[in-house]
Amino acid sequence: DGGITQSPKYLFRKEGQNVTLSCEQNLNHDAMYWYRQDPGQGLRLIYYSQIVNDFQKGDIAEGYSVSREKKESFPLTVTSAQKNPTAFYLCASSFVGNSNQPQHFGDGTRLSIL
Amino acid sequence: GQQVMQIPQYQHVQEGEDFTTYCNSSTTLSNIQWYKQRPGGHPVFLIQLVKSGEVKKQKRLTFQFGEAKKNSSLHITATQTTDVGTYFCAGQETSGSRLTFGEGTQLTVNP
Fold first, then answer.
1. CB within 8 A of B100, min separation 6: which ones?
2. What residues in B contact A59, CB-CB < 8 Å?
3. CA dihedral B39, B18, B32, B100 (to 10 degrees)
4. pLDDT band at residue B110, thresholds of 50, 70 and 90?
5. Would you give the distance in Å from CA B30 to the centre of its chain?
6. Is the pLDDT of residue B1 over 80?
7. Distance (Å, whole) CA A67 – CA B1
8. Are B6 and A99 an interchain contact pair (Cβ–Cβ within 8 Å)?
9. Percentage helix, strand, coil, to 5, in chain A?
10. What are phi and psi for residue B81, nearest 5 degrees?
11. Can you tell me the distance from the alpha carbon of B43 to that of A53, in angstroms, rounded to the nearest whole number?
12. With an 8 Å Cβ cutoff, are A40 and B106 in contact?
C-alpha cells in the first residue's frame, strides 16, 4: 500500500550483527504490526503496538526488538540472538476501535544471512 | 492459544474450474478477514465477515462465515489466471484484538 513504506527492500546480515528494518506509515493508523513469513508459510506475528510508547509480544518475539516512539514509525531490530533470521518481513497498520479494522501491509523486506 | 487452520495448502486448477479454501478456528471468532497475496507481493485485504452465517459476494468470489463463527470458506467460480496467489484467512477472537492468520492456500491456475 502506498501509505506504508518499508525499507530496505533487501537486507543482508552478517553473523553476530543486529539489523534494523524500517516501517513508516502516513495513514494516521493507531496500530502497527510486524509479521514474519517463511516460504510457503503463513504470517506469524512478531510484535504489535496499539499506541505510542507501548507494544506487546506476538507469537515469535524471541530474538527481535521494537520501539514505538512516534505514531508513524515502528522499526524492528533483528538481533544476533535470532539464529534463523532469513525470511520475508511484513509491516502492517490499522485503526483501532470497537469495530474490526482491516490491516494494510507494506511491500516487505527480504532478510538474508551472508 | 488461538489457532487458525486452513486447507488445502495448495490447489492447482484449470482456468474455468471452481476453487474453494476452508478455514477453521480452534476458538469462536468475533470476525474473520480474508486477504490475497499475489506472488512476490504483500497481502491485500479482501473482505470481513462478522455475523453468524453471513454470506458475502464480490463478483466471482463468495465468502461464508459459519453459524458457530468458528469456520469460513472462500469460493471462486470459474477461475481466471488473475486469481493466482495465496489466500489467507485471519481471525479475531474479540473486537480490536490481534489477528491470527491461517497458513494460506496457494492457488495456481493453468490457462
1. A45, B1, B2, B3, B4, B25, B90, B91, B92, B93
2. 1
3. -40
4. very high
5. 16
6. no
7. 25
8. no
9. 0, 50, 50
10. -65, -25
11. 27
12. yes
Contact A42, A57 (CB under 8 A): no
Q: Which three cell numbers stand for residue B110?
A: 493453468
Report the gap between the CA of A55 and the closest CA in chain B (Å): 12
CB of B46 closer than 8 Å to CB of B35: yes
Three cell numbers, residue B28: 469462536
pLDDT at A99: 65
Nearest CB among A40, A90, A100 relative to B30 is that of A100
Q: Is A108 in contact with B40 (CB distance < 8 Å)?
A: no
Q: Which residues of B touch A58 (CB under 8 A)?
A: 98
pLDDT higher at A75 or B94: A75
pLDDT value at residue A13: 87
pLDDT digits (tens, 9 = 90+) for B62-105: 999 999 999 999 999 999 999 999 999 999 987 667 899 999 99
Average pLDDT in the A28-35 region? 96
CA distance B16 to B13: 8
Asked if A42 lies within 8 A of B99 by C-beta distance, the reply is: no
- Residue B65: CA count within 13 A, CB half-sphere: 23
State the sign of the Cα–Cα–Cα–Cα dihedral A102, A48, A11, A7: positive
Q: Which is it for strands B71-76 and B61-65: parallel, antiparallel or unpaired?
A: antiparallel
